[in-house]
Recover the amino acids of this structure.
């Protein structure tokens, strides 16, 4: 397809070069003055390590495994996320916990191992969609880097603590789970009530 | 001055000369180094960017990015000094000097302040005193030798890009020299002398830029071509000839050649100021004295340095044929017409 190039008739003033050049210089000077008088935080450039951009709603960044208020994990180890994951980066091993299954006759499951291989994860958010318990969220942290491959394997405790500092929650450890376990498995007190 | 010279076992004239040499050498060098900073930060500001601001002294004081100069210098010194195997070794080593010297030498005749008297002796604030017989011809001649730096760089590196870039740059410099010289000649004619001191003295009350505006435009444009700066930077072209005659140069050799371009720029601004903007003269002050005159000269020179940067980040490049057309068909006739017009005016006035 031929393109017809529009011939522009330049005016006498434009053909001298100097007037258009002068106009252009006024434009660049305006940009210069505007940029130099703008405060750093109002400029277009986000100076990354010093300033950080607020990510938009719905941004899919680093995962968080959500917890109840007492610190118990929300995940029930249903494997829905692992099934949905197109990158096959989620590894779960379930375990039963609490004594309720003995006394009341039903099971409570939770992940003994919940591992996400961050090097494989493509941050598609399918796990978040698949989760029936809203237990895994992809949130706004995007600063994910490590010096070796092993540190990019995020385990259960890593994933539960990813946003602990941001949200002002307590960091959970294996020990804190034991306490919760005692609390949950406190069958005597439940029976008394 | 006398006491100090007695202390150093020098005659006052020698001491004064040594002082001036230091000043004239270190001044443009410092300005050129600063100009690399101005160019980078200024271009950033023009393009709504921020520019290099992370280099910091001891990792603490950023000082608007000025430590970047030191960082670049250290980096240039520390880098491996590579001479390509098929290059002409001697000329390759000579090139940075050939590029650097004409740029630095051009400043020698330019008066950067008003002459003053002390102890019955007149001190001139230019490296070469008036009446040296060279006058403004000297910077023009020295400026012309800058072509050798370019050409030797191109031939010695034995690289097609370098040769193409060098040929382009030298053809451009030679063809724009004509228009420039004719513009300067009409200045010589109207001021009646070719010594910069005389030219500045003649600009009392009215700077040359007023009556010689066309000449100024021609000279100014030719200065862009002479200093190989955008919109006429045909020495290099990323898409066609990589870095032109710089291509094979690395480490401090490259830094020196890059710096000499900026010294060229400073010298060019000083020439423009001397020829067309009254040198050290201050408007409405007949006799500004040493300090004020030096400040005025520095201010004007810095302004024109900034204009060089400003124009660079405003205008796109010309095409090479457009450049040649402009040099030969616009600049040369224009400055010739300017010359004839002023000759005619002088003839009518008698």
């Amino acid at each position: 397809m031929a393109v017809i190039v529009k011939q522009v008739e330049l005016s006498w003033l434009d053909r001298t070069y100097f007037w258009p050049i002068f106009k252009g210089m006024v434009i660049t000077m305006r940009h210069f003055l505007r940029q130099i008088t703008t405060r750093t935080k109002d400029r277009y450039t986000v100076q990354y390590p010093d300033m950080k951009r607020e990510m938009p709603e719905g941004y899919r960044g680093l995962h968080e495994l959500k917890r109840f208020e007492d610190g118990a994990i929300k995940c029930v180890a249903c494997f829905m996320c692992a099934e949905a994951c197109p990158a096959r980066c989620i590894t779960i091993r379930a375990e039963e916990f609490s004594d309720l299954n003995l006394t009341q006759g039903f099971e409570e499951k939770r992940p003994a191992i919940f591992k996400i291989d961050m090097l494989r994860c493509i941050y598609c958010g399918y796990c978040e969609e698949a989760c029936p318990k809203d237990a895994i969220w992809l949130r706004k942290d995007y600063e994910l880097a490590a010096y070796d491959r092993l540190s990019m394997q995020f385990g259960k405790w890593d994933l539960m603590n990813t946003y602990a500092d941001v949200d002002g929650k307590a960091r959970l450890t294996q020990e804190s789970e034991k306490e919760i376990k005692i609390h949950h498995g406190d069958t005597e007190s439940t029976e008394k009530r | 001055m006398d006491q100090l010279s007695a202390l150093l076992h020098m005659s006052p004239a020698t001491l004064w000369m040594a002082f001036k040499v230091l000043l004239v050498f270190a001044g443009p060098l410092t300005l050129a180094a600063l100009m690399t900073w101005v160019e980078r930060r200024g271009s950033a500001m023009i393009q709504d960017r921020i520019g290099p601001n992370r280099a910091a002294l001891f990792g603490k004081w950023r000082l608007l990015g000025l430590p970047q100069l030191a960082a670049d210098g250290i980096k240039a010194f520390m880098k491996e000094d590579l001479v390509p195997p098929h290059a002409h070794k001697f000329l390759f080593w000579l090139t940075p000097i050939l590029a650097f010297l004409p740029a630095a030498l051009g400043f020698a005749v330019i008066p950067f302040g008003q002459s003053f008297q002390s102890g019955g002796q007149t001190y001139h604030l230019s490296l070469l005193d008036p009446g040296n017989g060279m006058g403004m011809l000297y910077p023009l001649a020295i400026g012309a030798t800058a072509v050798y730096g370019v050409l030797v760089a191109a031939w010695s590196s034995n690289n097609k890009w370098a040769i193409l870039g060098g040929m382009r740059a030298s053809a451009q410099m030679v063809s724009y020299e004509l228009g420039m010289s004719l513009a300067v000649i009409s200045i010589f004619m109207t001021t009646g002398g070719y010594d910069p001191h005389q030219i500045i003295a003649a600009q009392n009350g009215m700077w040359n830029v007023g009556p010689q505006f066309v000449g100024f435009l021609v000279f100014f444009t030719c200065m862009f071509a002479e200093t190989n700066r955008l919109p006429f930077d045909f020495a290099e072209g990323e898409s066609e000839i990589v870095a032109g005659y710089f291509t094979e140069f690395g480490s401090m050799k490259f830094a020196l050649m890059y710096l000499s371009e900026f010294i060229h720029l400073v010298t060019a601004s000083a020439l423009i100021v001397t020829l067309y903007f009254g040198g050290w003269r201050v408007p409405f002050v007949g006799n500004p004295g040493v300090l004020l005159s030096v400040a005025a000269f520095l201010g004007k020179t810095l302004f024109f340095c900034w204009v060089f940067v400003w124009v660079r980040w405003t205008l796109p490049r010309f095409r090479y044929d457009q450049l040649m057309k402009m040099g030969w068909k616009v600049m040369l006739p224009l400055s010739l017409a300017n010359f004839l017009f002023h000759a005619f005016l002088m003839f009518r006035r008698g």
Notes: Chain B has one domain: 78-349. Chain B touches chain A through 14 residues (CB under 8 Å).
